[in-house]
Specification:
Elements: H1 9-38, H2 48-87, H3 90-101, H4 110-133, H5 142-181
Helix pairs in contact: 1-5, 2-4, 2-5, 4-5
Length: about 200
């Protein structure tokens, strides 16, 4: 986490925004594909709006509402646990101080803040997607159905981004556990020669 090739805080912020740009791009591509394949066409005798209302809308509403509530309940627990087990430990602060001496300029709790932001945005995305299913989703129009499916696609992408953020923090936790279990031996300093001792001839 503190290796010299991990970039500056500005680079990390850009990477954070790029990570959230990827689900948006995937959702746009999904919308374009659905528009090309479904608008003005029927699937098994139904328009895409009818198929969405019968098969997709109830599942998307309940699924993302449950996901948002589950992540909301876990958010504080995850952050408090990571602070207690990783970022608030003496071993982590020692590693952080060593990294600062090598030119690392990021703040101590910056990775935990990023994890909190990932969780918050995933929760908001899940709730907004669920809300769209019983508002915009009731409009009997192919474009409205496509928009609701695109929102679901975007939220799925944000959950994957959040999953990788959690994985990164768990990797740091496991690294600290390895250090506690197998501490590196501190080399003993060489004994200084006794200058005042008489030399034997």
């Amino acid at each position: 986490m503190f290796s010299s090739n991990e970039g500056t805080p500005l680079g990390r912020r850009l990477l954070f925004h790029l990570a959230w740009l990827l689900p948006f791009v995937v959702a746009v591509c999904a919308g374009y594909g659905l528009h090309s394949l479904t608008v003005g066409r029927t699937i098994a005798g139904q328009t895409f709006a009818q198929l969405y209302a019968d098969k997709l809308r109830p599942s998307l509403f309940s699924g993302f509402l449950t996901t948002g509530g589950f992540l909301l309940a876990l958010k504080v627990f995850i952050l408090v646990r990571m602070d207690a087990e990783v970022y608030g430990t003496k071993e982590y602060k020692v590693r952080f101080d060593k990294a600062k001496k090598r030119g690392h300029t990021e703040r101590l709790y910056a990775p935990l803040r990023r994890l909190g932001s990932h969780l918050f945005l995933s929760i908001m995305s899940a709730f907004v997607t669920s809300f769209l299913q019983f508002t915009l989703g009731f409009w009997p129009n192919d474009y409205a159905a496509i928009a609701c499916v695109c929102a679901a696609t975007f939220t799925m992408g944000t959950l994957f981004v959040c999953l990788f953020a959690v994985r990164s923090n768990l990797a740091e936790w496991f690294a600290l556990l390895d250090e506690r279990r197998n501490p590196k031996p501190v080399p003993e300093p060489d004994p200084e020669p006794d200058i005042g001792a008489p030399s034997s001839t």
